[in-house]
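BUG-502 | component: ligand-complex export | severity: low

The export step for 6-O-phosphono-beta-D-glucopyranose jobs runs without errors, but we want the raw record kept on the ticket for reference. Input record follows.
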Amino acid sequence: MNERMMEPVTIVIFGASGDLTHRKLIPALYAAFQQSLLPEQFRIVGFARRAYETESFREMLAESLRSFSRVETDEDSVAAFVEHVEYFRGDISAEEAYGRLRDLLSDGTRYPENRVFYLSIIPDLFETAVRSLKEAGLVSAAEGGAWTRVVVEKPFGRDLGSARTLNGALLRYLDESQVYRIDHYLGKETVQNILSFRFANAIFEPVFNRTYIDHIQITASETVGMEMGRGGYYDEYGALRDMVTNHLLQLMCLVTMEVPSDLSADAIRNEKVKILRTAKLDAEQSISDAVFRGQYVASEDASGKRLKGYLEEDRIRPDSDTESFVAMRLMIDNWRWAGVPILLRTGKRMAKKTTEIAVQFKVPPLELFQQVECEGDVCDVTKIKPNTLLFQIQPNEGIFLRLGTKRPGMRFVVEDVKMDFSYSGTWDGTLPEAYERLLLDVLHGDSTLFTRSDEVEAEWSLVQPILDHAAALKPFAYPAGAWGVEEANALFRGCEGTWRNR
Ligand code: BG6
């Protein structure tokens, strides 16, 4: 175990009464506590406006742990864990609260001087919180002595301009090394494995380029709609800002970036930034050749149950043209990827919850064999199927390679088979939650899996043309429960195949 990870720490969670704290942060910290991964001396201070007492707050957290913990909860360890938690009532926008917080934390024997401030609050308050922390003397120097780290949740801005302003504001009070911009996809085990898979095995890298690859398609589809009061936030942001300018672009970077010189945070992030800066929307004539937005409309599920349309959902403006689905085609202008379309799509109320990256190879130059698709003994002749390397991020986490192989029998026909590595078939136990890994990395001071300021800005630059031309990109309708906007198949011009809807 790295010693830095075990340094005593006080973790102050701003927005402690919110959903994220109860569903993700506290369960993640509890899992670390259960596995003895937290330092012996740690304190968690929940900062929020509601009128709770520490006792009632602890009881609420214990209840959340019983519902949301990934690791098994037992009453003794839950009780031991919540003993480390305290509640601090305060208004994030009121300066007096920070003075009181400083007084509280000044008792170094109870509150270790290394501090993590976790901002699980609306982005409008990021700057106020950081400025007030700094002015109250709660932010230490970037180097030497006790440390301060500030974790910032998404959304990080709503366009390039606001992301720049926000970075400017944060970096006025903090050093870049003290800022941890969270993208929880980077904490997923399978996402981290993309780099190991690519760079720890010699067989794939030589064919990961324009000579062999036809296209790459990345899907993050969800079946949920606007449950749990999410509509208010979502309608302001939409699928592009909510999922693409962070999770999907990060997946794209990991699967296309060059090998970093080492595994340091900066070496990896430098390579990602290069990809983001060379990627462009592939708009042949106009932006509508490169981007499709969509909004789900009412439909019925398989059991005949009516599914609401987006505009009927709670807290959605009745005339909203926010997209609940977006698909786009990008090109990366470098030697490795020139001419290889990169297709991204994401949406709510789609047919299935899945996140996958499919790297599709070109079809062989000569079609010597007939390809068949069989069910039992009944086979249909199909077009020859190219190889696909699939990174299945979730669920059924694994990596699969689709190959053509001779079907046993007298005829020389080829059928698809899958070579697979699945986490569940290889290792026991559930995979750690993204937040477990990320929170421990913050305690450890490792920012590899967090986004740097230039990276965030490069993400926004890439999608800014879509925001600028939103008026020309009216959302197409798709039935709730479908695979999104059918028109988005047009993005596959010149490619073999279309969206993998499975
Ligand atoms: C969040 C988005 O960042 O990611 C949500 O704000 C989305 O809208 C969620 O539902 C998806 O995360 P996961 O880990 O369930 O794929």
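Assignee comment: Attached the raw record above. The mean pLDDT is 94.
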